[in-house]
Design a protein that fits this description.
heterodimer, A: 151 residues, OB fold (Dihydrolipoamide Acetyltransferase, E2P), 6-stranded mixed beta sheet, 46% strand, disordered C terminus, B: 744 residues, alpha+beta, Four Helix Bundle (Hemerythrin (Met), subunit A), Heat Shock Protein 90, 26 helices, 29 strands, 44% helix
Chain lengths: 151, 744
């Protein structure tokens, strides 16, 4: 089986992460959002997507990565998940890459904690690794690593 | 794949149609008992059962077909006058309807007809058929399709063996042909209406909501831009069309309340037969329309109230006669529109509720202190039946006559922004009155801010707004068991600070903005940073990630396109432990006091002219505002201020009522706004002191212009002002508008 897969890629901290292209509804630049007090710390706020209210999740926090430096505006990647449309906040958007199933491997050891549950595996690109995100699990906040359990 | 999809669509349509038809059959059968010879009713019942039979035969539901066939044969006998409707026959037909429903339910659930045993039913129906067949074979032959009568034995055996036989089908075809003609006459309704998926309507509603938003933005640009009149005219047109479209789409979601009432005659009949009572159900206002979601939501509460009325409210016939009433009890349902809401009244002429017994029971169960119960008005005592837990004990139900699960009824109705209330005259009956909003999609809300974010509060929960200024360097809040309370007109109002409810840091404020809210019969004050405005909002549900947070009921999109969260009054009260304290007497008394207030007058007390107190009937006040002195500008002789995109003229109240103005250079100027937008005027006062509810005894003949009279308010003599008169003299240009705003 050497099917070709297309991934929409984006940068999170030092990592290049991808979501299947078919899953991505749209990409919109950063916009002011309405914070939701009392919500899970990954929930960054609510945005108005042409009349649809979409929850924005900070993917850095979701994956247990370092906090995004202050003043750096993330980009919204709106993804269709089993829980409806969800916006993932990422550092910046990358290219759409086409990869061969043959380049796929289990998640690299550098990933720990919650990220191991949300990253399906990695494709070896020529110069770096593309981590494949399980969008449904990432959007479902009940999928939770031990150290992520803070309010 | 495609074929099965098509088939499932057909089955779905079949189910929808059949359910609708059966509801009508229920109603018609009950009506038929009173009018046994009404051929129109019989025809309608026959047609429905016939359609079900025809379609299920086509879809291969043989068991259902067999059962309906027997019913159909029986009905055709009735229609032809061979048989006469008797209560026993009506009951048999009703159980047939139940059997059909049961099988339809199975088909809906798993596609099978279920393993129910309907032999007893078919035997029963066949017994009625057999009774009809021998005496009058000629008539049966001449009036109904020739094959019907000889067919019957085969049908009976068909069911027993469980395999449909050819003759039964043949007769179906004959019936079909016969029915086609009859249907043709009454086919008019179907031609002018179509069936639309509710999901599609919801989508349309969302799109229109968005359009309204875009329209609002364009209107803002148009007002600010220097484009020509053609552009302005086009935006005006867009404005009108959008409003029209919005109203149209809203209407598509409306359904007559008769749709859910149609089930009630059956409920009443069955229940009254079971309880050995005689009942008549009268319905008025079936055509009153409500949003579909609301219709769904009130179905169960309504049925519950009706059952209660039949079960407990109406007395047994002998008891009724003893009391000099007609043996037949009357249950009336009334629905009508009033003030943007739908009112539903369920009235029975039964034994009514006894407030004294309810009070005694409440004391016995520890809901109320004895002395407090003593002070309850009859109306408050009656409404005890809605108290949570009050009704769970069977004893209470026996004594009070009703109440099982009435707390659930109330919470269901309040969840959709409605209210419920009961009134009763002992021995003469009771009326349960439900008020519900027309639609849930768009609701009026109050917008408040807290820690820099805006929140919407549905207005149905809103009681009043209070501003509490700090005095002597402190807010002077008292505490009961550590919980902050506010003295509102000598009653203690428990407070919830929105900041702490949202987990934000408390702020140092020199004044408290208190939004007085009502949740589940309890009143509490919500302290917010700022009270912004009222607006109509479109309620949107929260995503799964946020549904666990009880503090929020949903979200909405504001005029500027930003998202705002909608606060859940119930959730706030629960999280703020206001409801947990609900048996606290102070809270209950507060709830009582506010209710009483309706019959008294609410006065706004202002300081004006050298420390004098004046009172303005609150009914004539549009808003209270505080403007910064620096914002006040001049046109000619008049002071004006820019207010809501308009110029609001300001009048000094003290001068207009002949008092010396208090020369003040305070930074802020409190203003009482009178009149509506476009024709409003602001009355400058020195200070806004309080809002009080008082039964006012006016001493007339003060002889001063603009003063209705003097009254003792809060133990001080206070002038009550005639605002309409004052404005007429101070701002004659408002004349034509103020006429209908006379102060009572």
């Amino acid at each position: 089986m050497s099917d070709m897969q297309q991934y929409c890629t984006f940068v999170l901290d030092d990592f290049l992460v991808g979501v299947e292209v078919g899953r991505v509804q749209e990409i919109i630049r950063y916009q002011e959002m309405t914070p939701v007090p009392l919500a899970h710390r990954v929930v960054q706020g609510l945005i108005n997507l042409r009349g649809q209210i979409v929850t924005a999740l900070d993917l850095r926090r979701r994956l247990g990565l370092r906090e995004r430096p202050a003043g750096r505006h993330p980009t919204n990647v709106v993804v269709r998940t089993t829980d409806g449309a969800v916006s993932f906040l990422v550092d910046e958007i990358g290219d759409v890459v086409e990869v061969d199933d043959g380049s796929f491997e289990r998640p690299p050891e550098t990933l720990g904690g919650i990220a191991r549950q949300l990253i399906v595996g990695a494709h070896k690109l020529r110069d770096r690794l593309l981590l494949v995100l399980d969008a449904d699990r990432a959007a479902n906040l009940r999928v939770d690593g031990e150290e992520e359990r803070s309010g | 794949m495609d074929a099965s999809l098509d088939n499932s669509d057909i089955v779905k349509d079949f189910l929808i149609e059949s359910y609708e038809g059966l509801d009508q059959v229920d109603r018609d059968l009950v009506a038929l008992e009173d009018l046994p010879s009404d051929t129109e009713l019989l025809n309608r019942i026959f047609r429905c059962v016939h359609t079900v039979k025809g379609t299920c035969g086509f879809l291969g539901f043989s068991k259902l077909e067999a059962v309906t066939h027997v019913g159909e044969s029986l009905l055709s006998k009735l229609r032809d006058g061979v048989l006469v409707v008797t209560p026993g026959l009506a009951s048999a037909l009703l159980s047939l309807v139940d059997a059909i429903r049961e099988m339809l339910g199975h088909i809906e659930a798993d596609g099978s007809e279920g393993d129910g045993d309907y032999i007893a039913l078919t035997t029963e129906l066949n017994r009625f058929l057999a009774a009809a067949a021998p005496p009058n074979p000629q008539q049966a032959q001449s009036a109904s399709p020739p094959s019907a009568a000889p067919d019957l034995p085969s049908v009976a055996s068909t069911h027993a063996v469980g395999t449909p036989q050819a003759p039964a089908r043949a007769s179906t075809a004959v019936h079909d042909a016969a029915e086609a003609g009859a249907d043709g006459k009454s086919g008019g309704v179907a031609d002018t209406s179509i069936r639309v998926d509710v999901g599609l309507l919801d989508k349309l509603m969302t799109a229109v909501g968005e359009l309204v938003l875009a329209r609002n933005q364009i209107l803002q640009y148009a007002a600010a831009s220097s484009q020509g009149t053609a552009f302005l005219a086009a935006t005006q047109r867009l404005n009108l069309l959008t409003t029209e479209l919005q109203e149209g789409v809203m209407k598509t979601r409306m359904q007559p309340i008769g749709n859910i009432w149609s089930k009630l005659p059956r409920v009443v009949r069955d229940l009254s037969v079971a309880c050995g009572k005689q009942m008549r159900l009268e319905m008025d206002g079936q055509e009153t329309e409500l949003d579909k979601t609301i219709i769904e939501a009130i179905k169960d509460p309504l049925t519950h109230i009706v059952r209660n009325a039949v079960d407990h409210g109406i007395e047994a016939p002998s008891e009724r006669v003893e009391r000099g009433k007609a043996a037949e009890g009357v249950l009336q349902l009334r629905a009508f529109h009033e003030g943007g809401q739908v009112n539903i009244e369920i009235t029975d002429d039964g034994r009514g509720l006894d407030p004294e017994r309810l009070k005694a029971k409440a004391v016995e169960k520890g809901f109320l202190g004895a002395e407090h119960a003593q002070r309850l008005s009859d109306r408050e005592a009656l409404n005890l039946i809605f108290a949570a837990g009050f009704s769970t004990a069977a004893k209470v139900t026996n004594i009070s006559g009703r109440g099982a699960g009435m707390d659930v009824v109330r919470s269901n109705i309040e969840r959709i922004g409605g209210t419920v209330d009961v009134q009763s005259v002992l021995g003469q009956g009771a009326t349960v009155r439900i008020k519900i909003p027309l639609t849930l999609a768009i609701i009026p809300a109050l917008v408040v801010s807290c820690s820099g974010a805006r929140y919407a509060i549905p207005q149905v929960n809103l009681v009043e707004l209070v501003r509490h200024e700090a005095r002597d360097g402190g807010l002077g809040l008292e505490r009961i068991h550590g919980a902050p309370v506010y003295r509102l007109r000598d009653n203690l109002l428990p407070l919830v600070f929105l900041r702490s409810a949202l987990g934000a840091d408390a702020n140092e404020a020199e004044a408290l903005n208190i939004v007085v809210l009502q949740a589940d019969g309890h009143i509490f004050g919500l302290v917010v940073d700022q009270i912004n405005d009222t607006t109509e909002i479109v309620v949107k549900p929260l995503s799964k990630h946020l549904q666990g947070i009880a503090t929020f009921a949903g979200a909405t999109i504001m005029g500027d396109g930003r998202v705002a969260l909608i606060l859940d009054t119930m959730g706030l009260a629960q999280n703020g432990h206001v409801i947990a304290d609900s048996t606290d007497r102070a809270v209950r008394e507060q709830a009582c006091k506010v209710e009483e207030g309706a019959s008294r007058q609410t006065l706004l007390i202002c300081g004006s002219g050298d420390g004098r107190r004046v009172a303005i009937p609150l009914s004539s006040v549009a808003r209270l505002e505080i403007f910064r002195r620096s914002l006040i500008e001049w046109t000619g002789e008049n002071e004006v201020v820019q207010y809501r995109n308009q110029i609001l003229p300001l009048l000094p109240l003290s001068r207009l009522v002949g008092l010396t103005a208090n020369i003040s250079d305070a930074e802020s100027v409190p203003v009482v706004v009178y009149g509506d937008s476009g024709r409003a005027v602001g009355l400058k006062v020195d200070s806004i002191l309080d809002i009080v509810e008082e039964s006012v005894n006016l001493e007339h003949a003060i002889g001063r212009e603009g003063v209705l009279g003097a009254a003792v308010v809060q133990a001080k003599v206070t002038d009550v002002l005639d605002i309409a008169g004052i404005v007429r003299r101070g701002a004659p240009w408002l004349e034509d508008n103020t006429d209908q705003r006379e102060v009572a």
